[in-house]
Amino acid sequence: MADEPHLDVDALAHPEFLPDPSLSHDEMETLQRELATTAVFADDGAPDPETVAVTEAFDLTAELPPARPDAADPDAPTVVGIDQAFRLDAGEAVSAAVAVRDGKVVEYAHAVTPLRIPYIPGLLAFREGEPILDALAALSAEPDLLVLDGSGRIHFREAGIATHVGVLHDVPAVGVAKSLLCGEPDDPTDERPEGWRTPIRADDSVETADPGTIIGHAFQSRQYPNSRRINPLYVSPGHRVSAETTVDLVDALCAGYKLPEPTRLADAYAGAVKRGELAASDPD
What we know:
- The chain is α+β, with helices and mostly antiparallel strands.
- 23% of the residues lie in helices and 21% in strands.
- The protein is built from six helices and nine strands; from the N terminus they run H-H-E-E-E-H-E-H-E-E-E-E-E-H-H.
- The chain has helices spanning 25-38, 49-52, 124-137, 161-169, 243-253, 261-274; strands at residues 78-87, 92-101, 104-114, 145-149, 173-177, 184-185, 197-201, 214-219, 233-239.
- The relative contact order is 0.20.
């Protein structure tokens, strides 16, 4: 674990796409359009969903599970979940990256970074990209798949935070959002059973895709059997993954809870760091 940023810009595959918060609004959108032309929204090196499946949810009721790198199959793909918490009074983001392999936690890493701009819909990467990149730089595990809390291709310019981070590292990445930023689902999403999915297609709000293009899916990862009150997730490819494989990967990574296990762990870890519960050391 480390909480000091160690980002090596030269090690990034596409440093020209670093999300600079000092850019103007128009410059940010232009950069996103260029990013979308570089992103690969097709299967290109993403792990098979069966190889990353998590069959048993992690117990987070008492404390975070310890990192056990020696207990995991070294040949299994490494999935890194990424999420953030915020210390708004201090103007800081706590970015957490949790590496999971063979259904076990193998590493935790985080970074605490100043927030340089406010939240602007469609420009999330320019607010949260720097903290996320710092957390990934503090991680020694090499990811085979990144799973981010946010959108990928389901974005006004097909360049959500999962696309931005995936292209920067040239690593397969998927976005898992709790609300729909843009696009239209093929079918109504209310009160759907667990396992249900429907395509999300580009509409007029998506500048860079032809209308009707499938840019992601609504996916009902969990539901109450007698009261269907849980809303679906909105999952989309970030980079080097197709829309269909994205939803299969998210399905494989969910283990009874709404969120995929890697991002559920990252959410809990970020919250623990924010509260000061892990100020001295990480779980081990």
